[in-house]
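Researcher: Re-running this chain for the archive, since the previous output was lost when a drive failed. Same request as before.
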Amino acid sequence: QIICSMKEDSSGSLRSVSTPNLLNAGEYEARTGRICKPQAQSSRRKNLEFEPLSTTALILEDRPANLPAKSAEEAQRHRQEYDEMVAEAKKREMKEALKRKKIMKERFKQEENIANAMIIWNTEVLPNWETMRHTRKVRDLWWLGLPPSVRGKVWSLAIGNELNITHELYEIFLSRAKEQWKSLSETVSENDTEDSGASISDREASLELIKLDISRTFPSLFIFQKGGPYHDLLHSVLGAYTCYRPDVGYVQGMSFIAAVLILNLEEADAFIAFANLLNKPCQMAFFRVDHSMMLKYFAAFEVFFEENLPKLYSHFKSYGLTPDIYLIEWIFTLYSKSLPLDLACRVWDVFCRDGEEFLFRTALGILRLYEDVLLQMDFIHIAQFLTKLPEDITPEKLFNCIAAVQMHNSNKKWTQVFATLMKDNREGEKNHSPALKN
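Model: Regenerated structure tokens:
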């Protein structure tokens, strides 16, 4: 091949030809309409076993005839620089290839583990749920994360159905919700108001608020927003719940919990799990905004915060940064808004196994993971950081930190510490009661 590596532009000066797709002389003449005369084999070519494949190799080219030629020393230096650039590029490419290979290997291993775990769950655990669920083998398997194919089933069994809700009962409350929506729609038409829900005192008026919150639920997925495949399902589950529990109504954050359940369960089963989950003491305290109970949960959390991370605990105290600033959103959404969805599901897996204690253990795991960063921040930056956690947080790193958290204080477990706080509070109320004072 005869390579024309330089050509004139319209001004008569020389510029380099793009070299990724090299042209032979015939192709060059056909494309440019110019004759490219074969050049005599120059001394610079005799030691080269390649043609330049990118602009990197242009450093090896001779200068145009109208410029001073390279000296032997300069040519040798350019050759050395080029060899160094090629070696560095190969080293970089090798590093990237090893990284890709490692990622693929980990992915295959993870898929293999999930497949093996799925067999165990389907053949050993689920058929013998009551006898197997508390065994060490199942607890260890549970910690590693539930296979997506059995996740919904295990969640349902772990959450339970103490409320004895049936599919038929769900349909009844869904019908009632649809009637409420129709009624609200007619009220809007008659009164021509922007937000008729604001003028209705009944808690079922929170049906109108659901529409506003659904659009903010996992917006990056584009599946719960209007027109998305899960919009109507989420709307139905939340609407039915507000009619089932008008004393609670709809509270911001519920949409994230319902959405996660809908992604893993059928509609009616998602509603049953949702209603039972929100009926747990911790969730009910937060969603009913029971300040007294919420303060006890915060106090219990701080006991273990100080025990596990004394330096960070003191740092937070020095700025007057209280747990409610970051815990409320984490608890309200069960981390589904704050963590990547796949990681949030891993947290839900163990939460279903261990109960409310794991929600606060996860919080301590997050603080432990970012302790060094948080110690360098002031009040405002800490609050902002914990409100929007880094997106690159990985399950391995977080769960290693969670595993390192000790949920014991003076040989007392979470339940014992919380019970002590409850007892102290009741005794305090007795001592301050008007009857005792009289």
